[in-house]
Request: fold
Amino acid sequence: MAKIIPFKAVRPTRAIVGLVASRSYQSYTINERESRMSYNPYSFLHIVNPGYKYDQVIKGEERYKLVKNRYLEFKEEGVFITDKKPALYVYKIVNRHNQTFNGIIAATSAEDYEKDIIKKHEDTIESREKTFKNYLKTVGFNAEPVLLTYPDNTIIEDIITETQKKHAEYEFTMTYKDTHYLWKIDDEAIIKSIQNEFEKMNTIYIADGHHRSASSHLLCQEEKKLNPNHNGSESYNFFMSYLIPESDLVIHEFNRLVKDLNGLTKEAFLIKLDSVFRIKNQGNTPYKPTKTHHFSMYLDGEFYALYLRKSAYEFKTSLDDLDAYILYKTILKPILGIKDLRNNNRIEYSHTHGKDETVNIKASVDSGEFKVGFGMCAATVNQMKQIANDGLKMPPKSTYILPKLRSGITIYEY
Reply:
């Protein structure tokens, strides 16, 4: 029984919402961030990167306090307004590839996260959970929803369709050519109809935002212990989410980049791979796998196709069928010695946002920062759900999921 509630969003005024909204902080290069901040005083980046004002890098608790100060300044200057009534928000994104995503922004329950009504399919990195929990506690707001997905539902779909026939609160296009629309639902009867449909759902799934949801749950646990009058209605019991139907999800893969061969020579490494994979040297010809259990590898200036030897691998659970897990079980852990994917700085993950991933792998390895790179096919929605239903967890960064949300369009205050 999934619980969602309306909330009073803090939002940019209609006139400048397109200037305020930003991608996630980490998705910009330093030069991109500085360029946007230099010509756009309204960008949400000014809030999350407060050191720009002082021309220096500020970290830790000091940065968090300054983030809160910048946020309060935006409110005082009238950049943000607060809705007078709790509401749900219909949110539509049409990206530059003409893919359309429709859903509802709501506050979802940290208790549902704890009870596994909100199911997780991916492991998180413990240090990042704690860091973001401390960030939320200090700044007192969250500006980017967790992406959740639910089984397609005709009643919710009809409500979204009817709502979208009305005049939108927002309609704006970003520089990446994504167009965003937002409608507010504050009619209590309509809100109740939506809540009733979610209450019928035994399970909803985290699609993107495992660290944000885990951090929100940590914050809830901490605040409950500190509050002798806790009653379950406090804002820290919930976190902001964007809920979309399963049919709207688009899943891409992540690359794996490893900094060394764990003391092995190239020849010794290839011999060990041969026990589990059929190996085809592609030379200078880029290779991108098109079938599950096939992998690409770039090593020492050459591309390789790796085909899993089914006789050398056991398929026991739904997780064993996932390519990201197969790569971990056959190469990363036994050969390259990367046992803890949550806390190992020898491995990094990257996705090139729709561009040719083989180019990115090659460039990363050729730069000398990494020794070897791997690519694979994307997971499916059904794989993601089955793994979550079985109580299993994908390795970190097993999926790159669309839509990617913008920060600062709706803000949830704790």
Remarks:
- The mean pLDDT is 93.
- The first helix runs from residue 17 to 20.
